[in-house]
Structure formats: C-alpha cells, structure tokens
Q: What sequence folds into this?
C-alpha cells in the first residue's frame, strides 16, 4: 500500500490500535486485510495541516507513552493483551489530557476498521445490497 501522508511507522501504530480496539477474529477480517490504514491515511491527507500534524502527534504519543507507564516497550511492540490493558488505562484515566486523546484515537480507529466492506459484511451489513435497493427506489420514484 502506498501512503500519502503517514509514515510506515505511523501506519504500523494505527494498525496496532485497530487490532487492539477492534480485536478482529472469527468472521471479521484481520486489520491488514482491510482498508482501515488506507482510509485513515486518506482522511489525514485531506485534513488541514494543523489537524494532520495533531493526528501524527497522537499516534506518536500512543506509541511512546507505554514506556512512561512502565510497560518497557512501545505500543506497537506489546502483545495484544498488554496493548488492551494500556488502552483501558487511558480510557479510564481521570486526567482529561490522557482520556480525551485516547477516546479520539478509539473513535477514529473503529470508524476506519468497521467502515471496511469486509468488516461491514462480517457484521451482517452488505453495502452492495443497500446501494442496489437505494438505486431501485430512486428509479421507481423518478429521481436521478
């Protein structure tokens, strides 16, 4: 995959976030088989420079802060269980400066992963069927 604005390191951090927050398994595809990273890269490329830089800072924070919390490794180097433990700690933090960025990353990650066609189908939603139904309705109503 060619990235527009994210570095390969930032893409790996985001992929680790998606793997942890979404915990794919069963019918749900692994993160690397979705367009989650491509989606978030595209979203970042269209964002104003200030927002793009802020997002990149958040990714770096997410990757390095476990070192300060005693995990002895960067986020993307932790196993899924330790990553989940770390993210729960961020989410439950009484300090807004930790909880809010963590929740923002969670929202963006889930939006990127569950917006993928494969993840949607695994959840029982078929976007192609919905589009066909909508086109048929528009045609019957004479709308273009």
A:
């Amino acid at each position: 995959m060619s990235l527009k604005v994210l570095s390969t390191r930032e893409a790996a951090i985001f992929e680790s976030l998606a793997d942890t927050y979404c915990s794919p398994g069963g019918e749900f595809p692994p993160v690397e088989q979705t367009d989650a990273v491509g989606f978030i890269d595209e979203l970042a490329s269209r964002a104003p420079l200030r927002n793009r830089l802020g997002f990149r800072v958040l990714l770096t924070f997410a990757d390095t802060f476990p070192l300060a919390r005693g995990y002895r490794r960067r986020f993307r180097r932790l196993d899924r269980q330790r990553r989940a433990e770390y993210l729960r700690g961020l989410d439950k933090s009484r300090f807004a400066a930790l909880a809010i960025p963590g929740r923002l990353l969670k929202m963006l990650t889930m939006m990127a992963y569950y917006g993928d066609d494969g993840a949607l189908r695994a959840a029982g939603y078929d976007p192609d069927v919905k589009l066909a139904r909508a086109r048929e309705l528009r045609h019957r109503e004479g709308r273009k």
